Amino acid sequence: MAVVIGHIVLISVQVNAPSGVRVLEAVTFGVFSAVQRGVARAVGGVTGVWDGYVGLVSVQAENATLRQDVAQLQLRLQRERAMAQRARGLEALLGFRRDAVYSTVSARVIAGDATPYFRTVTIDRGTGDGVRRDSAVVSPDGVVGRVLSDPATRAAKVQLLVDRSAAAGVLIERTRVAGVVMGGVDAGLLRMEYVSKLDDVRVGDNVVTSGADGVYPKGIPVGQVQDVGGGPGLYQTIHVRPHVAFGDLEDVLVIVPGPATSTTAAGGE
Amino acid sequence: MKTARVGLALGLALALQTTVAPLLAGAGVTVDLVLVVVVLIAITRGAVGGLWAGTVGGLLQDALSGGVIGVGGLAKTLVGYVVGAFAVQFNVSRPWHQGLVVFFASLAHAACFVGLYSLLSDDRMATSEVGVLTQATANAVVGGGIAAALRAAPEALTRRRLRRRSLTRRFGG
Predict the structure, then answer these.
(1) pLDDT in tens, A147-191
(2) Does residue A250 register a pLDDT over 60?
(3) Taking the mean position of all CA atoms in its chain, how far away is CA B147?
(4) Predicted pLDDT at B173
(5) From CA B20, how far away is CA B61, in angstroms rounded?
(6) CATH architecture of structural domain A103-161+245-269
(7) A13, B124: Cβ pair inside 8 Å?
(8) What DSSP assignment string belongs to chain B?
């Protein structure tokens, strides 16, 4: 029996499904994503009870601070709205074409990677929700990653930007210097490659997507330059601290083709 | 029945690896629960049991992760077989012995896994010596804990059963 199973596994590893994905990968991912959804719900229930009852110490003081923050943010929002309105007016005046807006679906992270060596997560949205291979995944803080392979109907695997083989085309916001950020650096940092030693890059500069890779739309925040070094050769050694806390991801947005709309998470809760 | 129990243990480890382990990773602790279970199975079931557990656990892990299918499977198969063969020759019945075996098995697994990847691709694997040692230590702690719990569980159940029986005898059922 074990030998038969071994043969089936070996054969399925070499055979591709009609979608081009290996059968073993497709079947395991499809079946196990349902298990992961159930376990994630159970773990979420336990952490919810913990956060909702046990973790309420010092909430009152935190609440007062948050109220102050909200008031300040509301003021800032009003100012930003006024500025945006002015910018729209100027755009219209100059006849600029605005960047294409995109449609998003929100998704919940239901599982992490099965091995500690890769940085991927599973989300509860799939082909049924319009998610495709290479769909960009973002959060309010910035770029999260991209959909790695052909998704299942209600689940998809997302390669985080900090994964060793992930990359994205970026720009230094201040000077518009272009480069490529890559994952695989210890301590959750990204390294920015192909930036000439002649280019002006400083610690604290904001890094945003350039749109050149065809995956991430232009202008999405990626992170902040943490250190800049000379390094050997023609290029600078630049480390970028991402804005997104990849260890605490819960809800994300997947950019899907279609008119600019957004839908809520499949979980709904 | 034994095979079903092994399958269940691997399935549970895989489910916890993808749902609970990322929470620990957020706190800077990485743990490979599937490897821990493979090593514990190898210790109790010997070289052949360890080999099969490593093959199945590793292949499932590969299929669910973003890497090449077979690399984790081969690494865990080798580790499962070697640990099983070792456990037959030496006495590793105590939980802390098993924790120690998990520690060294984790180092061997990391060497196989990272070594195979460096042979297969040019991509740099994001692992440092400190990271590997931290993961091996975390695996050892979890493995030792599971071994201690598995050792204590039958005794606790028997003690509970005996206490209940004596209470029933004293006060009547």
Answers:
(1) 988 888 888 999 999 888 889 999 998 898 999 999 877 768 899
(2) yes
(3) 10
(4) 52
(5) 15
(6) Beta Barrel (2.40)
(7) no
(8) -HHHHHHHHHHHHHHHHHHTHHHHHHTT----HHHHHHHHHHHHHHHHHHHHHHHHHHHHHHHHSSS-TTHHHHHHHHHHHHHHHHHHHS---SHHHHHHHHHHHHHHHHHHHHHHHHHH-SPPP---HHHHHHHHHHHHHHHHHHHHHHHHHHHHHHHHHHHHHHHHHHH--
pLDDT at B124 over 60: no
Q: Specify whether the CB–CB gap between A234 and A109 falls below 8 A.
A: no
Task: Give yes or no for A15 touching B (CB within 8 A).
Answer: no
Domain ranges of chain A: 25-99, 103-161+245-269, 166-243
The class that CATH gives domain B2-171 is: mainly alpha
Question: Quick one: fold of A166-243?
Answer: Thrombin, subunit H (2.40.10)
The three-state secondary structure class of A215 is coil
Look at residue A3 in the predicted model and tell me its pLDDT.
46
Q: What are the extents of the domains in chain B?
A: 2-171
The secondary structure of residue A173, as a DSSP letter, is: T
* Mean predicted confidence (pLDDT) in B130-151: 90
Q: Which residue of A has its CA nearest to B134?
A: A116
pLDDT of A94 higher than 70:
no
Cβ–Cβ of A111/B19 closer than 8 Å? yes
Q: Would an 8 Å CB–CB cutoff place B14 in contact with chain A?
A: yes
How much of chain A, in percent, has pLDDT values that exceed 90?
Answer: 21
What are the pLDDT digits (tens) for A104-144? 888 988 888 888 888 888 998 998 888 999 999 998 888 99
